[in-house]
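Trying the structure run again after the queue cleared.
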Amino acid sequence: MERELPSGRAENRLEVVSAIAPEEVVIRASEGPTPFTYRYRLSDAGGGTDLSLAAEVELELEGVPRLLEPLAGRAVRRGVEENFSTLKSLLERLPA
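Done. Tokens:
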């Protein structure tokens, strides 16, 4: 996965940790600048599908002083929310 970070272009290599079709998929960054695990859960929503995301991030970022970790955490959260919003938008465009 390639994306833009405040520090420039970044690439993470992702791996599927587990998948329980059609209810859950867990993806982990195995390489790259942002170590995260995403757990996507899908559930019936009365004719639709609810998609929820639980994200875990290890914020022991190399070269980031401890005082800046909360800022880095907010930046990661903002990126996760933007990614989730993009995914939601793409899924909503799919034909029914």
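The chain has a mean pLDDT of 80. Worth checking whether this holds up in the mutant runs.
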